[in-house]
Design goal:
With 246 residues, the protein is of the alpha+beta class. It has 7 helices and 12 strands. The two termini are 19 Å apart.
């Protein structure tokens, strides 16, 4: 991969793809302890911010919504055997989340760190690394038929898959309104203009169509293999060809 591989492109305002895709939404961001009082475990706290509004144009050949399946080996430890849920792809770049990243904490622990509850509730969902860019941001992904009624800040990534970075959604979860399909993610994966296209031409990624079952029904440790199986391929067979010619 190039020197501008995922997570290492210049983070100028023009390349903050979370703002391009989610203009007007709120996100949760780590801030120093003096913003809202220190967390007893980390010395940090969560704060809600509003990103600058901007519109990302969708390219005629957009790969989003869809998945990017990492080639073996990809050459970047951040994305080894990863499956990325691609939420946006256009002239300004691309944006998505690694679905099978390293687990960080439980959802209950996240609610404590966010200052929403004092005692972590017993919730089954875990929170994983969603990518190397802006690791202070948190997102939740769930099935579209489990959307939170009358809450803003939710958007449909693709058919059957909804995501949010809204604190109000986390507050609803703390009150016990928990989607059964919930996936918690911290950070995201971002590409500069033309970066993803070049990586695909080099055979770094296999793009495949979106299906909710891969997001919600496959264990993380099986997701990479399951993504290849879905298109009738294996990781080793993928290394023998160029993705752009598939």
């Amino acid at each position: 991969m190039s020197d501008r591989m995922l997570g290492r492109h210049p983070r100028t305002p023009d390349q903050r793809f979370h703002a391009a895709v989610f203009g007007g939404f709120a996100w949760l961001r780590w801030r120093p302890a003096d913003v809202r009082g220190p967390n007893p475990r980390s010395g940090r706290t969560w704060r809600v911010e509003a990103p600058p509004a901007r519109v990302m144009l969708r390219a005629p050949m957009s790969l989003a919504p869809g998945f990017l399946v990492a080639a073996p080996p990809l050459g970047d430890p951040n994305f080894d055997r990863s499956v990325v849920l691609l939420a946006a792809h256009g002239p300004d770049g691309a944006f998505g989340w690694v679905l099978n990243g390293k687990p960080l904490m439980t959802l209950g622990e996240l609610l404590v760190r966010a200052g929403i509850v004092e005692v972590a509730p017993d919730l089954p969902a875990s929170v994983r690394v969603g990518g190397p860019v802006s690791p202070e941001q948190v997102w939740v992904v769930y099935r579209s038929d489990e959307r939170f009624a009358d809450l803003e800040g939710q958007f449909e990534v693709g058919e059957g898959v909804t995501a949010s970075a809204s604190r109000k959604v986390l507050e609803a979860i703390a009150r016990g309104v928990v989607p059964t399909s919930l996936v918690g993610l911290v950070g995201y994966a971002g590409w500069a203009p033309s970066q993803l296209e070049n990586e695909i031409k080099r055979g770094s990624w296999l793009p495949i169509d979106l299906t909710p079952s891969l997001v919600f029904d496959v264990p993380e440790e099986r997701l990479w293999y399951a993504a290849y199986e879905r298109v009738g391929a294996t990781p080793m067979s993928f290394t023998t060809r160029t993705v752009g010619s598939a």
